[in-house]
Amino acid sequence: MELYLLLIVTDRKLAQDYKTMMRRNGITRIFSLNAYGTASKDLLSILGLEPSEKTLLITAVDRAKMTKVFRDAKQKLYIDIPGTGIISAIPIRSIGGTKTLDYLTSDKNIHKTLPKYKFDKEMIFVVLNSGYSDEVMDAARAAGAGGGTIIEAKGTGAKFAEKFLGMTIAEDKQILLIATRIEKRDAIMSAVMERCGPGTEAGAVAFSLPVSQISGLRLDNEQESEDKEK
Predict the structure, then answer these.
(1) I need a surface site. Which of 56, 84, 97, 114 has the fewest CB within 10 A?
(2) Residue 196 near residue 135, CB atoms below 8 Å
(3) Contacts of 226 (CB under 8 A, 6+ apart)
(4) What are phi and psi of 55, to 5 degrees?
(5) Do domains 3-111+212-220 and 121-210 have the same CATH topology?
(6) Angstrom distances, CA of residue 128 to CA of 123, 136, 156, 184
């Protein structure tokens, strides 16, 4: 059985529509987090706008449900229209026990198979000290990144790390999500680490995960091909 972690980023006012759509497709385990967009403060000031409030929805699904969610997100919620949202699927390679698997899938009749994956896109996760998202996003954009989504977070073990490493590490964190083509991944991550990595005030660390499918995003200003699975 192939399992995927679905990440859906949308305007907060549309979050309930996505939850309703997922429940209609048999998905009941949905986690919701508040987030916001990464438009620069200067641009927002010029346009007289407030930072856009976003919601990040997270759930685990099998391939059949993933296909239905992508289909309905396009056909019913028009996720391909710019600004409507982004949905991505990240393959899950391991689960911590059968009870966890049952909880995530709500399915007792599970047959394990070895999935075969092929990726051309990745999701970059950047964990940074709170308040430095503009600097990190500027570095990422300079290396070819588009937009991103910020999630507020909290670090752990900061006091121990400060004592052990001899540097101040903030407990208040932000997580920046950036979807990109795989050929741009290294340049983006290198730029972020060079300008905003450990030892800087931003204190950023970055890692990436493969994305098997994505919708609602135009990478490199190219028209993303339609998903052939219906």
Answers:
(1) 114
(2) yes
(3) none
(4) -125, 135
(5) yes
(6) 16, 8, 13, 20
Residue-wise pLDDT for 14-63, tens only, equals: 999 999 999 999 998 898 888 877 665 555 455 444 557 888 999 989 88
Tell me the C-alpha distance between 9 and 186, whole Å.
24
Over the stretch 160-212, which tens digit does the pLDDT of each residue have? 455 544 445 556 788 999 999 999 999 999 999 999 998 899 989 898 888 88
Report the candidate in 6, 222, 43 with the shortest Cα–Cα distance to residue 134. Answer: 43
HSE of 219, CA atoms in CB hemisphere, 13 A: 20
Read off the pTM.
0.69
Tell me if 33 sits within 8 A of 54, measured CB to CB: no
What topology does CATH give the domain 121-210?
Alpha-Beta Plaits (3.30.70)
Number of H-type helices and E-type strands within the chain: 7, 9
